[in-house]
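Title: Request for sanity check on Arsenate reductase family protein prediction

Description:
We are preparing a figure and want to confirm that the structure record we downloaded matches what your pipeline produces today. Could someone re-run it with the sequence below and paste the raw structure tokens into this thread? We only need the token string, no images.
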Amino acid sequence: MEIWINPACSKCRGALTLLDAEGAEYTVRRYLEDVPSADEIREVLGRLGLEPWDVTRTQEAEAKELGVKEWPRDAEGRDRWIEALAAHPKLIQRPIITAEDGTAVVGRSEEAVRDALSRR
């Protein structure tokens, strides 16, 4: 199990607290420092069953500067979104937990973190 976190994020800290309380074994990836490649983002999106626009923090200043809210949300525009996430990792929703069964969840709630834990 791996969890992509921003240590400044309260949702990330809450997810780590719950993982620790449940005795989970996991690896922390500080994705703002260890930035995922476009291919890694594609792989995680596949595991999540989501599209890049589903995990983009559109309210961030960088997102507004890029104008992502206006970008097409379709197959042709998908790579543009993924490249933006790789170039601007602050736009990636957090935390993302990759489960041992090959799936992943965006762990913004206790229920989502527990879901990831159940997939061990």
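Thanks, this matches our download. Helices lie at 10-21, 38-48, 61-66, 78-87, 110-118.
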